[in-house]
Amino acid sequence: MRDDAPPHDVVCHVGLFERQALWNDRPVTLGGIGGVATRPDRQRSGLASAAMKQATACFAREGKDFAVLFCEPHNHAFYRNLGWHEFGGAVFCEQPQGRIRFAVMATFVYGLQLAPRDGTIDLRGLPW
Ligand SMILES: CC(C)(COP(=O)(O)OP(=O)(O)OC[C@H]1O[C@@H](n2cnc3c(N)ncnc32)[C@H](O)[C@@H]1OP(=O)(O)O)[C@@H](O)C(=O)NCCC(=O)NCCS
Question: Which of 9, 11, 64, 120 would bridge 42 by S-S if both were Cys, CB 3.0 to 4.6 A apart?
Answer without folding.
Answer: 11
